[in-house]
Specification:
CATH class of the largest domain: Alpha Beta
CATH superfamily of the largest domain: Fructose-1,6-Bisphosphatase, subunit A, domain 1
Structural class: alpha+beta
Number of domains: 2
CATH architecture of the largest domain: 2-Layer Sandwich
Number of strands: 14
Distance between the termini: 42 Å
Radius of gyration: 17 Å
Order of helices and strands: HEEHEEHEEEEEEHHEHEHHEEH
Helix content: 25-40%
Strand content: 25-35%
């Protein structure tokens, strides 16, 4: 697992560099809409192809699941989850809060995760029992620790987008949480979970997620001292929704999301 994690870190950083070739380069960027109306660009596809090629070189018998291309079956029990650009809408608009996500499971259990923020020069990664780590501009890694905030009224709550709550009829849940915290911002997607893991926010909530969005998040938050669950409180990356917190506030947040 540790060998795979080291490769995942390097691959995520290198794929992030591919995305930077197109970042704020509107003349190079054609935006298409997928079947679910989410946007996709050449940068998404090139970065995912690069990640898949590198995995195939080093671990050809591992399974791979990615956002842009069909699944690859494997025989080792390991599966890689790839989101080449998490936050494509931010990427398209020249906002640097997008990320490259790689998650790794063994027999269905999350064992490693990487979040690279290429436009910000940040890298967050974790492995089961290895801790969670944060690097900025290739500095020496520092341990990630969630904040110690224990009062909801003092917490910062971030999310990927308010309208997403409407798509699953959960807007009132958003408002309950919004009214209970000190600060609300839409610093979302993978970046929001990085803020929680590094103690810069306390709560990140997504009402709708795909497996490649959530795959690296549970291990990173848990190793940083926090929690990542679905809205029912199950610790899983397969819940199609996500709640990430500093741990101390998690049950309070779940109670607010589940009311009514």
């Amino acid at each position: 697992m540790q060998q795979r994690l080291e490769h995942a870190k390097a691959i995520a950083c290198q794929a992030g560099q591919i995305t930077l070739r197109y970042f704020n380069q509107t003349e190079k960027l054609t935006v298409e809409s997928k079947a679910d109306e989410s946007p996709v660009t050449i940068a998404d596809r090139e970065a995912e192809l690069y990640i898949r090629q590198r995995i195939a070189e080093h671990f050809p018998d591992d399974a791979v699941l990615g956002e842009e291309f069909p699944d690859t079956e494997g025989s080792t029990g390991y599966r890689w989850f790839i989101d080449p650009i998490d936050g494509t809408k931010s990427f398209i608009h020249g906002v640097p809060l997008y990320s490259t996500l790689i998650g790794l499971t063994k027999e269905g259990q999350c064992v490693g995760g990487v979040i690279a923020l290429p436009a910000l020069g940040e890298l967050v990664w974790a492995g089961r029992g290895l801790g969670a780590w944060h690097e900025t501009n290739r500095s020496e890694p520092k341990r990630c620790r969630v904040s110690g905030c224990s009062h909801l009224a003092e917490a910062t709550f971030v999310t990927s987008g308010v309208l997403t709550f409407d798509k699953c009829h959960r807007r009132e849940a958003y408002h309950r949480l919004e009214r209970s915290v000190r600060l609300v911002r839409t610093w979302g997607d993978g970046y929001g979970y990085v803020l929680v893991a590094t103690g810069r926010a306390e709560i990140m909530v997504d009402p709708i997620m795909s497996d490649w969005d959530s795959a690296p998040l549970q291990i990173i938050l848990e190793e940083a001292g926090g929690r990542f669950t679905d809205w029912k409180g199950h610790a899983t990356i397969f819940g199609k929704e996500g709640v990430g917190t500093n741990g101390v506030l998690h049950d309070e947040v779940l109670a607010l999301l589940g009311e009514g």
